[in-house]
Amino acid sequence: MICPDKIGLVSSLKFHAIYSPDKIFMHALSSGAEVCISFRCAAWHVEMCRRQFEAAAVPKGGVVLLFFPQSWIGIAYFLGAVAHGCTASFMPCPSPKQDPNKYWLAHRALIKRIQPSALVTDSRVASDMRNNGMIEDRLALLIAQPLDEIVPDGLPDMSRFGPEASTPVLQHSSGTTGLKKGVMLSNAAIMQQVEFYSKALEINESDIIVSWLPVYHDMGFVACFLTPLILGLTVVMLDPFHWVSRPRILLDAIARFKGSFCWLPNFAFDHLVRTCPMGSDAPRLDSVRAFVNCSEPCQAETFARFAAHFVEAGLRHDALRVCYAMAEATFAVTQTPVGESAHVLTVDGSFLYSDGLVAPVSDGAGDSALRLLSAGRPLIGVDLEVRDSEGKPLPPGKVGEIHLRSLSLFTGYYRMPVETAERLVDGWYATHDRGFMWDDELYVLGRVDDLIIVAGRNFHAVEVEAVVNEVRGVKPGRAVAFGVANALRGTADLVIVAERNEFSDAANGNLEIRRSIREAVFQTFNIYPAEVAVVTPGWLQKTTSGKIERRSNVERWVRERSDIQQGG
């Protein structure tokens, strides 16, 4: 149950530690290790961490950035910072798949802008920080200490927790178009979001959330950490890097703990289908009330493949739901209603891309037919408007930019007043996402920034990429589409860069893959790409949340264009 006074995070922890002290809050699973934390144990650990902030004289009200591999200890220090009265924010650690120079350069710039009071991390990352000029004299650096596995009986003194009502929390965007933006969230907005979102999903106290999602991303942070904390639920938290190498561990955890809710980005549904064959030892998924597709434009074909693949594991089709979410709205904006499958709307793509007009057609109505997956209905307290380029509201069935206002909207970007004023006007947030309303449900097409305009026709990069990802020989989820200005033609050229999979022969396969991509795109969109490049696995860059980092890939393509064999 939600804390009656609805004050904030550590108040919720105090409430559940008092009234459900022995209930497991978190099973933290990593490679070869498992930690089980009750609400009583969590309260002790948070108090231990709070004392370290106090001993280090970290000023109350200051910003604390936490750099931890996914673990309970990082979460305990986050809550310890909040209990000390600080604004806390999770940050990603360096990844083996990232360019370390790029990572440290970006985070030095971020620290310069944020001006935090303290950084908290483990000894290994702290050493890397020193070597890369991250530590300044004014900064307090806290090295995480081991937390006692056995805590005293009873409860700690929690009278020093807070004050939190006026202390915001920072979420950071995944940085698909530049330096990450710190999204300021009030405790009131967080509590309102969890209350209304849990009602939309009919979450109850016996539900168990299973997640591999990183807590520095809004889906992992709000849906899979703050929601169980505030509602007093149990969460099974896996290490993201362990999941990437062994995707089945998510399904095994669902079967073992009888998980009822699991949030995933669209690519993860396809990844599970590719890597988890069905057989006599397949984990059972009967307990799942909702697999929620979120974080990136959701594809109807992805749900169809997932449902068909896991039906023998007991997956119910109405368990497949969609959510439209963003950090600026705390998290969820819309959600597929309980008891309903996500609706699929088939439209004529030629009208959609040329006129921005929704024209429903029957399935199989030709190559221009597009199957779009509904993102559901707005939550309580959310207002949506689809607006044209002049900011005027559009009727249902017309494509435009999605604007929203809600009771859980952010208060602004931290230390970024110009960007805040551009996006947050009169209580309405301009999402920079394009979509339309149909039968009171929202359909999201993609980012305004990802719109490719070729000879007056509008194409959404994610829709083109979805078609390319189906081409034989392309590594699924590893394609990027973008427009490049062509001065001679007076319009943009459509360019596609796709990674071949590990099994494709570079010498003989690239030409055939390029031909297949060009034909697939033409059959769907009635346009041939001006250029198609097939590159080696790992060439494309992604953000820390797993999204294609479009700007960086365009810049790299421009730099290396002459070295990449192009399709004719």
What amount of the residues lies in strands?
25-35%
Looking at the overall shape, the CATH architecture of the largest domain is: 3-Layer(aba) Sandwich
Count of β-strands: 28
Q: Can you give the helix content as a percent range?
A: 25-40%
> Which quaternary structure do these chains form?
single chain
Rg to the nearest angstrom?
24 Å
What can be said about the biggest beta sheet? 5 strands, mixed
What class do helices, strands and sheet pairing give? alpha/beta
Terminal Cα separation, in Å? 61 Å
How many alpha or pi helices? 16
Average pLDDT reading? 89
| Fourth-level CATH superfamily of the largest domain | ANL, N-terminal domain
CATH class placement of the largest domain = Alpha Beta
Give start-end ranges of low-pLDDT stretches.
Answer: none
Shape: globular
Strand order of the largest sheet: 11-12-13-14-17
CATH topology of the largest domain: Rossmann fold
Number of domain units: 3
